[in-house]
Specification:
Length: 405
């Protein structure tokens, strides 16, 4: 059993200021998107109106977090506790007492996200390791202090990097870096990788910078950095591959890809696994992201001709919104339509837009995930990725067979 200890916190406010590339920087007040949690007759719920923008009131008090953890545990001893929230964990004032209380000296702890911007002493990580921290997700951006100071607003970059080194020596540390073209890619990325390798990091997740709506900025705050053109998907995949080839630790990318496991959609490159899936007996249209479409199409081509895969303009499936459905060519859309489970739009509106040509279409939400991205696969092997995909595709195919045409 794994338990989440949610400490709350607000992007930009509970992390010592926005990083220059932050997805939440400049977010406007937004109307609810609609989502799978909404009631059928009403668009808008807590998730798609508040949680999606990390709308916490601030960090939660320590006693509240501990009480929530105890409720989830129900008297059992968890296998792992993940401490996470909307702010930077290194800025949570009660992080060490919380770690001691939930770890109890023997339960391993995963710090879900920190950039180290909240650390003020060079050895704070030592006490956290003693308290039970065994895994850390650390946003590094660059190991050059002046780069962190300029682009992350890190007032004490040397302190953050010193604590990162301590974590690397004692824990499984998976670092992350949002890649800004001409800033922390190229030689700067190579320096960061060499430094992390020397420190003992387990892996590095490269994250493609998003600057326009199609890349995932759905909160009315584009562009994040005016004048910057992010890497294309092809350029980004090449950078991930070349970086992985040069270093001994794991390197993955999001929204793609993982050179070791072949994720996302490793099934596309493993036709021998297709026999594990149910036979496809009916037809449908599957709507997905522009990044996923080629891989998803390759999988369905091995299953039969009755399912066509249509790409929305959004790079990431769970960030597809109602505007993306408005742009689709309905001539390509069959009478049964499957959409990503976490699509941010209300079924009633989706059905109306997809039926505007006079054909009444049935809209079905598929599984929340059909694959894993680099943030998940970095600690997985190929078999684990394929098993997850097979189970997800079984669910998708069963929905098509039950409700398709």
């Amino acid at each position: 059993m794994e338990i989440l200890a949610d400490v709350g916190g607000r992007p930009g406010l509970d992390c010592r200021g926005f990083c220059s590339y932050c997805y939440f920087r400049g977010v406007k007040s937004i109307q609810p998107f609609g989502c799978k949690f909404c009631m059928p007759f009403k668009k808008g719920c807590d998730y798609c109106s508040r949680a999606i923008v990390e709308g916490y009131p601030g960090f939660k008090p320590l006693d509240m977090v501990v009480f929530e953890v105890a409720q989830k545990a129900c008297g059992s001893i968890p296998d792992k506790v993940t401490i996470s929230g909307g702010g930077d964990l290194s800025c949570y004032p009660e992080l060490l007492p919380l770690a001691k209380m939930v770890g109890q000296g023997f339960v391993p702890i995963h710090l879900g996200y920190t950039s180290g911007k909240g650390f003020t002493r060079e050895n704070e990580a030592e006490a956290l390791v003693e308290a039970g921290v065994r895994e850390v997700s650390f946003t590094v951006f660059s190991t050059r202090p002046e780069m962190r100071r300029k682009y992350m607003g890190d007032r004490h970059p040397d302190v953050a990097l010193s604590n990162l080194k301590i974590f690397c020596e004692s824990c499984d540390v998976y670092c992350a870096a949002v890649l800004i073209p001409g800033v922390n890619d190229g030689p700067e990325l190579e320096k960061t990788c060499c430094d992390l390798e020397e420190m003992g990091a387990k892996g590095l997740i490269l994250m493609r910078f998003a600057n326009v709506r199609e890349q995932g900025l759905i909160l009315g705050n584009e562009p994040i950095i005016p004048g910057v053109t992010p890497h294309t998907v092809e350029e980004f995949r090449r950078i991930v591959t070349e970086t992985a080839n040069r270093h001994s630790f794991r390197v993955t990318g999001t929204p793609l890809w993982d050179p070791v496991t072949g994720a996302p959609f490793a099934l596309a490159a493993h036709p021998e696994e297709i026999h594990r899936l149910p036979a496809l007996r009916r037809g449908a249209t599957v709507i997905t992201s522009s990044v996923a479409q080629p891989m998803l199409k390759a999988i369905f081509q091995q299953l039969g001709e009755d399912v066509n895969v249509v790409a929305a303009s959004k790079d990431i499936g769970c960030l597809i919104t109602i505007e993306d459905f408005m742009e689709l060519d309905l001539a390509q859309v069959k009478d049964t339509v499957l959409i990503p489970g976490r699509t941010l739009a209300h079924e009633k509106e989706i059905t109306k837009i997809l039926s505007r040509d006079g054909r009444n279409r049935l809209v079905i939400r598929g599984p929340d995930m059909l694959t894993v991205d680099g943030e998940m696969s970095i600690s997985m092997n190929t078999r684990e990725v394929l098993d997850i995909e097979v189970e997800a595709f079984k669910e998708l195919i069963e929905a098509i067979n039950a409700l398709g045409v």
